[in-house]
Queue: 2 jobs
Job 1
Amino acid sequence: MSQEGHRHFHDELSQVKVRLLTMSGEAEAAVQVAIEALLERDADKARQVIAGDSVIDAMEVEIEEKCLNLLALQQPMAKDLRLLVSAIKISNDLERVGDHAVNIAQSAERIMQSRPITPEPEIVEMARVAREMLSDVLEAFVRGDSASAREVCLRDDKVDALNRSVFRILLTHMMEDPHSIGAAMGLLLVSRNLERIGDLATNIGEDVVFLVEGKSIKHHAEHFGNQ
Amino acid sequence: MSQEGHRHFHDELSQVKVRLLTMSGEAEAAVQVAIEALLERDADKARQVIAGDSVIDAMEVEIEEKCLNLLALQQPMAKDLRLLVSAIKISNDLERVGDHAVNIAQSAERIMQSRPITPEPEIVEMARVAREMLSDVLEAFVRGDSASAREVCLRDDKVDALNRSVFRILLTHMMEDPHSIGAAMGLLLVSRNLERIGDLATNIGEDVVFLVEGKSIKHHAEHFGNQ
């Protein structure tokens, strides 16, 4: 490749990174608005998330096409090739985050029709941690910072623990007050959606570590150096 | 590439396809055994699924490495490049199917501790449809058969409808008999896991259509030619 060609190619790679950051911002916002719809019992916000998902979907298609074109036309060497394959996988994961936000918004719509029930604090905390994981892991991807990506993966334990608490709290609620059952089933699914968003952020973190260190930490307890 | 090199490369591509078929077989079997654990209240089968997941995880890492190596060393042209990128995405999706089987096995373990409740027929039917979707969509991938891949995507509506029935049946159960709440929450999560497996098979189907026709049917109602 000529020096001109190289410069052009690296501009294109930077554009892919910027688009992924934008896509992640959209996905995080969708999760946030879906949780607001749930807490504020706001049907407009729920509809906004459901309608807005097509924007996230279109970004996935666009990023994947861009990456496939760069792979085909530029025939990049190992490191850039991995970067492009990771970008495709990350856009796939972010699209799923968008789907989970839609599921949360749909549960919110159903829950609005029944009496308010807890456990709101745990759900709010899960959503906060999951969104921060997404935001930080995308930053780690763009900066090529594997230490920070490993740290994000560790936070998934917190989301999993909150998910287990929510299960127990809802079980107790339902037992004590059968009228809460409909809403509680909805919240159980919301909690599960948030837990999956944490898993997706963790997948992205694992991809970043592989990209930077050339070493797979997938499917190992090892996320922070301890085997 | 020399003719010898081409032949070698195409042997390697065939090997990737065979490994994906094997991986899909493992994932389908895990789903089947997890459902058996649930229905037969068999703790050994649940443990077998949970322990066996590392085999599926290892296959994903192996297939991804193989594809990245082929991409780096062979610098394949557009069509084979897309095939390799699709293979990475499919192995990613199959790994998630394995995770859902583990979740089902974990729910089965919890449900065993309470009294048996329905809705067994719907859950069994969902599992059957989801496994057939996986099996058929992998066949479609290997044969490059986009018509068959589109047909698999359509079957997802059946899984979604069953998932909605299960939700309603469980809600009624819980209302009528609060002692069934623990088991019903577990079955709700099992139903959701099966629904996600249908979604993952649909994702693979969409990838096969894109691979064969060069046209994205993602995120469109259109799966069978009607726009």
Job 2
Amino acid sequence: MTSDITTCGMPSAPSVRGVLLDIGGVVYVGEAPLPGAVAAVARLRAAGIKLCCLTNTTRAPRRVVVERLARMGVNIAPEAVLTPAMAARRALHEDGRRPHFLIHPALAEDFADLAPPPDAPAAVVVGDAGEGFTYAALNAAFRVLVEDDAAFLALARNRSFRDADGRLSLDAGAFVAALEYASARPATLYGKPAPAFFAAGLAVLGCAPDEAVMIGDDVEADIAGAQAAGIAAVLVRTGKYRAGDEARIDPPPRALAADLAAAVDWIVARTRG
Amino acid sequence: MTSDITTCGMPSAPSVRGVLLDIGGVVYVGEAPLPGAVAAVARLRAAGIKLCCLTNTTRAPRRVVVERLARMGVNIAPEAVLTPAMAARRALHEDGRRPHFLIHPALAEDFADLAPPPDAPAAVVVGDAGEGFTYAALNAAFRVLVEDDAAFLALARNRSFRDADGRLSLDAGAFVAALEYASARPATLYGKPAPAFFAAGLAVLGCAPDEAVMIGDDVEADIAGAQAAGIAAVLVRTGKYRAGDEARIDPPPRALAADLAAAVDWIVARTRG
């Protein structure tokens, strides 16, 4: 029998003030909340722990993510939901860049209120454009990159995804790689496992790295990513978790939990009252 | 004043039995032969030197290349014109592979007589598909690569090309890079500067590397490529040549010639009667 929680090393656990929470595969799968997950989020809040949802979705705008969580009984402020699009939006706003988009049409609303001046320097934002990855669209993005000395923001670097027909299909990372090769300009990733994405989550929480814990089901993007940003991380055995994932990274996750409920119990027990 | 020929090092020149000849920018530009080029080819032949044309074109079938040369007064056997498509065709035939194509439609005739059995192992051949680089077409190629354990043949790796509107546009290399990233399978290049492409040219000539000379206008693809294959190379100051190109590679070209006529004179003078 596997216990609900296994900790790895780390004799003295610091106080936990905030949690960065992956949601797909941790809080829900598809439209169904995972058993005990909604109550677990409520326990986190009752313990006074701040929450920021960190998701790599590149086909749903933040509004849709917030609405999906609300339908399951998890009410969270839009500001506490961080997607690659929202992180890229913040960077575009802070840098005063005029974006050229090659993204999923559903994400347009996340960037709707940007109003850069016409002479602002350019940026190319590449996400999961799906069938929108045509030669003409890719070439237009390429020309902005090389002619306008544009910044290059990638919402994802995934190689492939399991498609509706059960087969692997090309994901956004392939097209980011194509544009990087042709333009000889490296893209900056906005999303897990990029350290800047975790830093943006910490800013939402108002926490230092050693005051936060990441909870996720993806040992690379969630756990190794958080740890590279100096944040302790708990791997849950739900969602995309496969047996032995915890041994695939070094150092291993701070803890391995059966599910979100077990992860929350472990965190709450380590929180200064 | 610049002399017609400058040699670099190489005290004793070996006997020259065959010439590998780049054609675009060396024999002609567009549809117009360069001054003295047609007569220079005739002088090579009169000296008993064998000829193989080595071109990186990925939008014209071999038949069209042969016809273009014939219109200019250069009659050459189809077998002595090597394009990336013809080199890939040979590899597919020798390996008994069943090809999946993502290439320019004009190249289809170069592969028309391949007849692999239905159960032959697969190969993906990527060339300059232009507007044919759609998400669906790229995804179909990706699926053959990852599901069928296919060989991956690239007809080119160019990042970009000068388009009809005078601006740079994405070239085939970007899409080769996309598929390499997503599939984690490296492509094999059929074309200059791949050593295998020069080796195929030597096979056409029936020459050892030290019995042949490459003549080209592209210091990287033609000259560095040939030299990496152990073949001496003469850079001509026509076509895409830009002042100082000869200093961009180490070792430098064996000789720098004003044009094909000067290169041929230099070679003929070094040929054993």
